[in-house]
Amino acid sequence: MRTDAGLTQEQERFKWRASPVPEKPRVLTSEPGDGIMVTAAANHVPVPLVQQLKPGGRMVIPVGTSFLTQQLMLIEKRPDGSVTTQQILPVRFVPLTGRH
To answer: Can you give the residue ranges of every domain in the chain?
Structure first.
């Protein structure tokens, strides 16, 4: 399916995500995704984000407190729905804000 600009829906989503200033407000989908990349540190892995992963999906998220070393974590949801976590490397990110 093509949009008014002649782009596929996937191209339109990428264009919007890559744009520094969105052309119009978008609502995040509640559909499960293949991957999530979080760019702010949470003090724990937010369950709602794990729930948004499809079976076989992956999430990369920095986890830890603001003033100490954080760990970049790889969260994987297996096809059976179980979840595995793996520490990748120490990092420093700004804190994640909002309810989580």
So the answer is: 1-28, 31-100
